[in-house]
Specification:
three-stranded antiparallel beta sheet; TTHA1013/TTHA0281-like; 33% helix
Length: 67
């Protein structure tokens, strides 16, 4: 989450998705709701298009290097 003084809006981005999902609001409380709305729309579009909503993870779980 970040605040953009130029636009006067809080903004956020959902990480770990196979596509982009940004959201904006005038307050942190509204930003939480916009997060939920943005994620719901993203998941709906992925389901409609048959797209995996999560980004593929390369390597071992947790990002730990293998010895």
């Amino acid at each position: 989450m970040a605040y953009d003084p130029e636009s006067g809006l809080y903004c956020g981005e959902i990480l770990g998705l196979s596509g982009g999902a940004d959201f904006y609001a005038k307050s942190p409380t509204e930003l939480r709701q916009e997060f939920k709305n943005s994620l719901a729309v993203y998941l709906q579009v992925c389901a409609e298009k048959g797209i995996d909503s999560r980004r593929a993870i390369c390597g071992p779980a947790g990002g730990a290097p293998t010895p």
